[in-house]
Each structure stands twice: as C-alpha cells, then as structure tokens.
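Hey, resending since the last one bounced:
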Amino acid sequence: MITQVQLPTQAQIKSLVDEATSKVGREVFLENNLRGIKTMLDSNPSLYHHYGPYWWAVKGLLVANGVLDGQEDEPITREHFKFDDPIYTLCAAWAYHQHQIESMVINTNLHYFDLDGEPYEYALEDLEMETWAKSRKR
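The structure tokens again:
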C-alpha cells in the first residue's frame, strides 16, 4: 500500500531546503518553484510522471496557489507524501524527480518501491494531465 512507502524525514532534507531558500527566501522560492513546474508542464504535461506519488502533493500546491487548474486528486497519496511545510514537500518531490531522471526512469507512470523487502508498484495516472498531454500531441 502506498502509505507504507518510507518518506525522507525533515532532518534528511533540511540541507536541501536551506540551500533552496538561502538566496531568495521561502516565499520567493515557493512562487518561483511552482511557476517553474508549471512552465515545465506547459512544455510537456507528461513530465508530471517524474514526480511519482509526490505528484498529488505537488498538484495540490499548484492548485492551491492558483498556478494550475484541476480537481482530480488522490487524497490518501497526497496526504502521505505531503509535509506540513510546502517547501519541504517541494524539495522532497524535487529530490524524487531528480532521482528518477538520474536513474533513467523516465516517461513512465510506474514507480517501484521496496516495502520491507517486498516489491511494490505504484501506477500514477492523473486523467486531467493525461488529457492535457494527449491534446498537445495532435
């Protein structure tokens, strides 16, 4: 089950958060990061797949901040992959996104996790994003 996936602790990503916010501050980082994600999605909506299960928490931030329209949600997954602080959510999601790219696991909606020695496959599908991606291919 997706809620058994171990997330990094805040202590584990604190240095990433500190680095991300050190030059621009928290509010500017949040605004710039959300706009950057939207720009990436404008160029290729399918790139949402790289966020894996973090997508739902990222999408929630995009929608809450008026950067993206959308209603499709996976509440259980969103809540599990969301930190109390949106900056931590974005940094954890970015780290996962980067890990996917560096591992050459791209252009797939399938994400694999180890749950106490047992493999677990998570299939990400946001029908709003899939519709947007298909409409751009025409």
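The radius of gyration is 15 Å.

Sorry for the duplicate.
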